[in-house]
Amino acid sequence: MNLFSRIATWWRAVAKRDELDRQVRDELEFHIESHAEDLMRSGVPREEALRRARAELGSLAAGRENCRAASGSRFVDELWTDLRYALRMLARSPGFAAIAVGSLALGIGVNTVLFTAAQHMLLDRLSVPHPQQLRLLAWTEPKEGAVESLWGWYDDLPGGGETSTSFSYPVYQQLRKQNSAMESLFAFKTLDRQTATIDGHAEAVTAEMVSGNYYSSLQVWPQLGRGIQESDDGPPGSGPVVVISDQFWTREFARSPHVIGKTIFFNMTPMTIVGVNPPGFTGAYSAQETPDFFFPFSMQPIAAPMKFGGSTSSSLLRNTNIWWVLVMGRVKPGVPDRTAAASFNVLLDAAVRATMVVKNNRQTPRMLTMDGSRGQNPAAEGLAKPISVLLGLGGLVLLLACANLANLLLARASARQREMSVRLALGAGRCRILRQMMTESLLLSLLGGAAGLALAYAVRNAIPRFMSNSWGPPAFSARFDWRIFGFAAGISIVTGLIFGLAPAWQATRVQVSSSLKEAAQTASRRQRGLAGKTIVAVELALSMLLVVGAGLFVQTLLQLGHSRLGFQPDRLLLFELQPPQTHYPGPANIPLYRQLDERLAAIPGIRSVALTSVPLVAGNAMTHTFIPEGQQRKPEGNPSVLSNNVGENFFSTYGIPIVAGRGFNSADTETSRKVAVVNESLARKYFPGLNPIGRTFEAGWNQPIRIEIVGVCGDAKYDHLRKDPEPTYYAPYWQNSNGIEQATFALATSLDAKTLAPTLRQVVQSIDRDLPLLDMRTQEEQIAASMQPERIFASLTASFGVLALILACIGIYSIMAWMVSRRTNEIGIRMALGARSQQVQGMVLREAAWMTLLGVAVGVAGALALGRVVASLLYGLKSWDPMTFAASALLLILVALGASWIPARRAAGVDPIRALRHE
Amino acid sequence: MAKDAGVDLLQGTLDMLVLKAVSLGPLHGYGVLLRIQQISQNRLEIQQGSLYPALYRLEHEGWIGGEWGHSENNRRARYYRLPRRDGAGSKLKPRSGTSSRT
Questions:
Q1: C-alpha–C-alpha distance, residues A370 and A738, integer Å
Q2: Domains of chain B (ranges plus CATH)?
Q3: Where would I find the H helices in A234-305?
Q4: Which of A135, A167, A647, A827 is the most buried (most CB within 10 A)?
Q5: DSSP calls for A601-615
Q6: Within a 10 A sphere around the Cβ of A186, how many other Cβ atoms?
Q7: Contacts A27 to B, Cβ<8 Å
Q8: What is the model's pLDDT at position A512?
């Protein structure tokens, strides 16, 4: 009852102001009339009675206000008054408002944009009901454990050994059958670059193979048709059905409902579309990328046949050696993770021993469960550190903007001292004034936050575009949801509190009596200068950090760009082919490539053609066990080197010099002995001081072959610009008995992609109508794409550095100008006593110089300490690179002194007589 | 206690007097004033300016409820009364003398 009446009366006072006012007025009027009537009854004349009644009741306005306050609306009323006052003050100084809101908008906007990207890459969860209940199964085993063949994600553990999320299909089946610790287990596996032919038109699609209980376990219901069911996942070939993604449906079928029941060819296998996934469903692997096709595991041997681990069958479902499927499950209520993992441990051990031959007492893997709410979350792995660094830098920018604002507000606060003293003298409490100042700061920061949010929304697609290749679709589309909004609001409020605190505190430390006096030159004034100078020193330190960061990352980009490639990247056009295994099983794609070699070389304008199975500087790698002649294969582990299957003209097309022996020629056929060309690093490492030509080595692990070295070539970058060339051997592609699944063709030509594309497509389709050309780009574009992260960093940190310099400039200028104007009196006295204008100028500049040196020194110390955090992101220079530090310090000192120049000149130009008069 | 215009009653005392006045039946503001004078046998004079804020404060805190009604002369007036409670009469605890700025 109590609370209800409080809320009701409070609401009436706040929301229905006019009604309350009228009510009080009516009541008071009634009171006056009644009182007057009583007086009239006792004989007082009417006019006199009314006058006395009014006088006794007191002021009507005061009465109304008191009644309002009695209803508990004081806080809201005062807040409203403060806000209106703050808005009026801001409107009166539009320059200050623009700078304040502008710098806050930039700081908050930058952080919001970075947070959007970070949220998507790191935090986004799978769009299924209750993703936090999902667990991804994983295992660990020591270095030489039972698992030998793996296709999928794995990570080396620091103490030796490895961990992985891939299981063999027979092991998965056992786990699923015997599982009692979790709600049903389901399996999936993503596939890259499959070929889909729809209405005669072939294109590349991505796919996810799923088990029959995938949809029911994830509780995902297709928006059209049905999902994959248990009946589809029976014996091989029993479920030629596919469910397509919402994006694919929009792109290919324009959201037509007639897509259900349509037959398409997936890797040459006819399959029927039975459903469309709901929008936003990205599968179970990651929350960032959406596979186009979902089909059951039962179709793997037919639609996606693969041979692994020396097996002759192209079905991976019976293969007990290769570990490749990912397994997930929902937690059973009441079963904690540790219990589940322990029970699975037992099951896993039994399953491994039942399905495969465990060699020589090797240890079987131990089970772990990992959080599955984000799937495998492949994006997080490489991105966590760079994104944290960027967020940290963004935070520094915001801190800088806050320091700037605190400074500006401090200057304004000292100008409003008289106002504060008057308020204090009239009876306002310290808390009340503090509240007013904080309201002003919070208003400013919320305006800045709103502007920053608008800015972030406007450029929300900048980061995804930044992060994607120039030839592919944008990496993701930035989504704005309530978390972003909450984040922006949160940091606005925190910044308002941070930069508002110092000025608010200063305002309440005012001594009423002394500041009300006209010519107050009390000692306390000197101290107040210190707060401003400290803040400027802090600003300079922060700017130093940002400028040094910018210098380091820009130089990293430049160093990478100029690093020695070992080959000629210019005028090389690349495209990829992935002939489906169903049509070109095993080595059947070799004749296809041979034909293409000839036909492409015949096109006018193309100087030479070379196939390479691993495109250079694309992040792809192929390794093989390598045992040089004269050494034995060791059971505990053998060295491995990088390898590449290349065409005859590879070395000439790429401009890699052959320094000894020869390249490949027509003498090397499919049936002659296997040959290879090794690079200098390999020759140095494995055949030191010897001539490797003519020597042989054994390569491969499942089916080792003996290869003869016929030439040595120069070192060239392989998969990443950052890595120095490692031992590599190049083998002719036609001698690879397994065939080349995915091939990149490099064409040396002066023509550009647009001109050549139709001709190329025609040539390829003249050989095989259903083979799409993928990823056409130049080698230079490929290299530029591999430098994408460094480029992003360099651009962002450079903008932060520029922003920091601007803010530092504004900050120093404003504090110096304010100090000079405050000390006009003092300067006048000095000049009257004989100081020359040079001396006055020098005095001002010296003060600025001290501040600057202190700030830069602290900044250098901070940059050295923090540099270690980002050292792993740099290339070609150390995190304490002296040139960068020296240049940044010099730049900052120049900017600081330049900003103080004008106030110094103004101080020197002070007219002593006017200064002494103006008190 | 003579009619001493200079005596300021503590806030709590005024609240108690208002509640006592209203406990005998619903009253409008002027009626509360008259009843208090009646109860104190015309020896207490309430500062009229602080009466209505006190009434509003008591209403805010839930001690009394207010609603519009008609006076004897059929004029509109706001009547205050104690909230209806089942069973025993309301227990009123005297407020200690805390002064609050208005």
A1: 36
A2: 11-81 (1.10.10.10)
A3: 246-253, 300-303
A4: A167
A5: HTSTTEEEEEEESS-
A6: 23
A7: 28-29, 52, 77-78
A8: 63
